[in-house]
Design a protein that fits this description.
The complex is a heterodimer of chains A (223) and B (223). Chain A is an alpha+beta fold. Chain A folds into 2 domains: 32 residues; 137 residues, Immunoglobulins (Immunoglobulin-like), CATH 2.60.40.10. Chain A has 5 helices and 8 strands. In chain A, strands 2, 5, 6, 7 and 8 form a 5-stranded antiparallel β-sheet that branches. In chain A, strands 1-4-3 form a 3-stranded antiparallel β-sheet, with no helix packed on it. Chain B has 223 residues and is an all-alpha fold. Chain B folds into 2 domains: 80 residues; 105 residues, no CATH class. Chain B contains 11 helices and no strands. Chain B is globular. Classes of the chains: A alpha+beta (223), B mainly alpha (223).
């Protein structure tokens, strides 16, 4: 707007010259400029209180989001949760890496080789899966006071699997859950006498006696 | 390369140590200190040769449970270790470079039942999926324990596998022989009847004989 005024008129507006000091041909332009500037409203502008409140609320919310008004816990969490670029440098000798790897492998091997839980009757498989099926053992032993069955499936424990008499007929029986596979066993009569199952195949036990063989094939089946 | 060899040696040593350590508590409460010491030496030697240790521990526990004198228990464990070694050699002869413990133990059972090392190799050779070599060996051992001559048992097993019968059928062979014996047949007669039904090798044929028009079974253990 003022760019069109003569430089001397601009100096007039700036108060550096008076109207009388302008050349006569510029006095009309000078008077017009003074008139326009004098007509300008110089009253202070008053903002609406509602507008001021809205602006300040926005400013406070922004400040809170930047952490200026957050609690210490909130600030700590933000500090922990804010991603940062971290550069980690290690200086190692190659043999220490190998030694560490070997130590870890040895520890793992020892851990895997720890003693297994004590097996329970029927829980140990020989050449089979962990699927167990019920197998019935029967022995005719008239006059016996106690009969049990011991074998590879119960660590040859004479007390683990006692048979019960079926009435007074001399027939003793029990049913065990055995894993699928083949097992060797024998009956123990009165806690001391080892007897092979007369109804099952038997092999030399290496001690001059015979072990019976039971092969569990499918649920409920045995030789 | 030298480092890798050292690592493998350390790992193998740690694994064997773990396996032997795992057997320790099983022996602690069941056998005498004398038997325990002897078995540990035998087992360590067996483990160093890659033989399974568990059957040795089982045999020691079995002997102690049966009240067998210490020297006889130790002798039986030592004899079993020998059979496991012989079985390992026979299984490797069949083309299995690194046999599992079950297969080696099954071979030892077969040797104990009267099979020769060569027959054990033949049994492993004829095994093919779904027939596991360990199962094949145990079934053959059971047939021999029933009184079936080893050569005939070998032919029966091979005929059953060759005619694509299931693993359950194979495991059921001893029961079928027993049923035949119960009807009045000798074990050899019962086995011959089953072999004919299975299309197995006729008497007098070599174990790898196959009926005309049938393909010779492929050995899965050969590369």
């Amino acid at each position: 707007m003022t760019t069109g005024y003569h430089p001397l008129v601009k100096r007039l507006l700036d108060g550096e010259l008076s109207l009388a000091e302008l050349p006569p041909e510029l006095r009309a332009e000078g008077e017009e400029a003074l008139r326009l500037v004098g007509a300008a409203d110089r009253a202070p502008v008053a903002l609406s209180p509602a507008l001021e409140e809205r602006v300040m609320a926005t400013v406070r919310g922004h400040a809170a989001s930047l952490g200026h008004a957050a609690s210490p816990g909130h600030r700590a969490w933000r500090w922990l949760n804010t991603p940062r670029d971290v550069e980690l440098r290690l200086r190692v000798r190659p043999w220490t890496v190998w030694a560490g790897a070997l130590a870890a492998a040895a520890a793992l091997a020892l851990l895997l080789g720890r003693p297994a839980p004590e097996p329970v009757p029927g829980a140990q498989a020989r050449g089979g899966t962990r699927d167990s099926v019920l197998v019935r053992f029967v022995l005719y032993a008239p006059g016996a006071h106690r009969v049990a069955v011991a074998g590879t499936f119960n660590q040859w424990d004479r007390a683990a699997a006692p048979l019960v008499p079926a009435g007074t007929s001399g027939v003793w029986t029990t049913t065990l859950a055995l894993p699928v596979g083949q097992h060797q066993y024998a009956f123990v009569v009165d806690g001391a006498r080892w007897v092979a199952d007369p109804g099952a195949p038997a092999v030399n036990d290496g001690f001059g006696r015979r072990n019976s063989i039971v092969a569990v094939t499918a649920p409920g089946a045995h030789l | 390369m030298r480092t890798i060899g050292l690592a493998a040696t350390l790992l193998l040593g740690a694994t064997l140590a773990g396996e032997l350590a795992a057997q320790q508590p099983r022996l602690d409460r069941r056998v005498s200190p004398e038997v325990q010491r002897a078995v540990q030496v035998i087992a360590a030697d067996a483990a160093a040769r890659g033989l399974p240790v568990d059957p040795l521990v089982q045999k020691a526990i079995e002997g102690a449970a049966k009240g067998v004198p210490n020297d006889r228990v130790i002798a039986a464990v030592r004899a079993l270790a020998g059979r496991l070694g012989e079985s390992m050699a026979a299984v490797r002869e069949a083309g299995v470079a690194a046999p599992g413990g079950d297969v080696v133990e099954g071979g030892a059972d077969a040797l104990n039942a009267g099979f020769s090392g060569r027959q054990v190799s033949d049994l492993v050779r004829v095994s093919r999926p779904p027939h596991d070599a360990a199962l094949t060996l145990r079934v053959a051992a059971t047939l021999a324990a029933l009184g079936v001559p080893t050569k005939q048992a070998l032919q029966l097993v091979q005929g059953t596998i060759g005619s694509d019968r299931s693993a359950s059928d194979l495991l059921g062979l001893p029961g079928q022989v027993q049923a035949g014996v119960a009807r009045g047949a000798t074990p050899a007669q019962a086995a011959a009847g089953l072999a004919r039904a299975a299309g197995g090798t006729p008497p007098g044929r070599l174990p790898d004989w196959v009926p005309p028009g049938q393909q010779k079974p492929k050995n899965p253990h050969k590369p």
